[in-house]
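During data preparation, a discrete fold description was generated, and the record follows.
___
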Amino acid sequence: MDASDLTPEQRKEMEEKLKNMSPEELAQLQAQQCIFCQIISGKIPSKKVYEDDTCFGILDINPATKGHILLMPKAHIAIMPQLDEKIGGHLMQVARELSRSLLKNLRATGSTIFIANGLAAGQRAQHFMLHIIPRVDGDGIFKYEKHIIDLEKRKALRGLVAARMEQLTDWEDTYASEVVEESKVEAEEKEEVVAEIEEPADEDESEDDTEDDESDETEEDETEESEPEKPGRPGEIADSSLDDIANLFK
């Protein structure tokens, strides 16, 4: 039953029960409600690619690319701060080997390994996991708009972070002045580049460039027509199902 369907009396009773539960009982209750814990226990079918005493790896049913793996601890751990060093270190070792297998078996040219930690970071499951995603050049995954922050805001933000770090640790911000100077130089260089780009070009040069561009395009078209597409390029897995990909790890 969903919590929104409960009456005020039932909700109050549930809250009282939760308050009186021990941490172990709460963890057990969370595990019972977690879909990934049910997948790990075998109650819900999945395409398993890896398993040991500590972790469990499956293929994502809504992959970013073919071969997208979800690697998670068998113990119910909701978010990264609950992860201890031993389990975390083991997960990274396994992720390294799975990434190596993806590069070899799926002929990927790279892999993205990331953690969505918390709702604001895109975490949708109530179970901590690593995403291991095979990549190829130009696949267009994770494209985002770049937000350029001006120099003054960057300086203010850096000052706040540095002050907080000094409060929490013995770290001293000895490189603040050097970084600020480097930022100023970079900003000046960018302004010079923009000024050069905005300068009008001579008409003769423009016509020459246009002719060169047209000739380059013609050569490229001829090259594309003369070279048929070769099967088996890196990252191509034609008509492969989850079962096909999972079998590569058997």
In short: The longest strand covers residues 130-135. The chain has eight helices and five strands.
